[in-house]
Amino acid sequence: MSASTQRLQQLSGQLAGSESLSARDILLATRKPTDVVICLALRTPLAKAHKGAFKDTQLDGLLVPLLNAVRDKSKLDPQLVEEIVVGNVLHKDATFLTRASCVAAGYPASTAVSTVSRWCSSGLLAVESVANKIATGGIDIGIAVGAESMSTNPDNGAPEFPASFMADPVINDITQPMPWTAENMARDFNVTRELQDEFAAESFQKAEASQKAGWPDDEILPVTTRWKNPKTGEVETVQVSRDEGVRYGTTKESLSKIRSAFPQWPPATTTGGNASQLTDGAAAVLLMRRDVAEKLGQPILGRFVLSTVAGVDPRIMGIGPAVAIPKLLKKVGLSKDDIDVFEINEAFASMLVYCVEQLGLDRARVNPRGGAIAFGHPLGCTGARQIVTALSELKRTQQRIAVTSMCVGTAIA
């Protein structure tokens, strides 16, 4: 009899005569050799773009130390890693650089490397890509990475499309800046500036409490790098060990004093205090099949169950999580009350307010360590970073199930 069957029988015995086995109970009790499991989850600190410790660090300067750490901390023979998938948005030569970075980090030429992009969810797409290959038997072991240097690879906006494309209002909306979509959400769904500042202040306060308590310490890899000191003009070696964007003492009242960042787009409620910060950082997730992990003596931090995607109207792209999360929960037979932690990317406060209220979520379960408003959103990194953070939080609180979601440029979730 398998361990999962024994566990199911134990649960059945415990619940006999009282209530039937719930979908959550069954999900948690089931263990299969072919499960996709996570054996290591790690990230760099998140540093302020253009002025933080990583402002002079190229993308490879984030990738190489992170991949080195995955190899060293897991004590896994790099020859066994069949593929590394890197999510990145802005680097123009990402496919070349990620392959080179993996080799520089000690992975052999036999380790295949690919680069994926789905804007803000590129890190999630990397995890999904590796997990699905393991689930279908294509590979046994892979590493998913999300990484972005917004300092050295700035976002230049949408390309120029043919006039025939731009005549289509949906395509025209795809080309618009993301803050424009945030203001559309605020206007269309009556998300007030006051509510946005309230949610943003809550993010800062959670992040402050988390950082002071040392909760993120086990998810963060300290990184040593070099930067040009803006005061002295000299190049210095610095070590970064914590997220730079957290502003202690932030309140709704203090945020309310910040002027609108985009007065040209009514209702002009988005500010530098209630939107995600421009940030540099990277995150990595080591995945493998359960029986392989057990054979290699790898710790199992969690199990990848399922992912899904959904498209929405680009002009209100922030509603994405409110569409994608119910779709995912329906597919796995769970309700929102079965979920212990929701990691929802805080692209803008207007979308966060809408999604949390539309889904009827307990705010205490949403981004319990704060989110991108408080410590930043390195575009390609955040999806993988959310998984790293969620696993650390589940471990700390001895909880079991987390869901990650985000709205994505061009309106996907």
UniProtKB/TrEMBL annotation:
GO MF terms, alphabetically ordered: acetyl-CoA C-acyltransferase activity
GO biological process: fatty acid beta-oxidation; phenylacetate catabolic process
Cofactor: K(+)
Active site residues according to the UniProt entry: C120 (acyl-thioester intermediate), H377 (proton acceptor), C407 (proton acceptor)
InterPro entries: Thiolase, Thiolase-like, Thiolase-like_sf_Thiolase, Thiolase_acyl_enz_int_AS, Thiolase_C, Thiolase_CS, Thiolase_N
Residues annotated as domain Thiolase C-terminal: 300-411
NCBIfam families: AcCoA-C-Actrans
Stated family: Belongs to the thiolase-like superfamily. Thiolase family.
Protein name: 3-ketoacyl-CoA thiolase
Lineage of producing organism: Eukaryota, Fungi, Dikarya, Ascomycota, Pezizomycotina
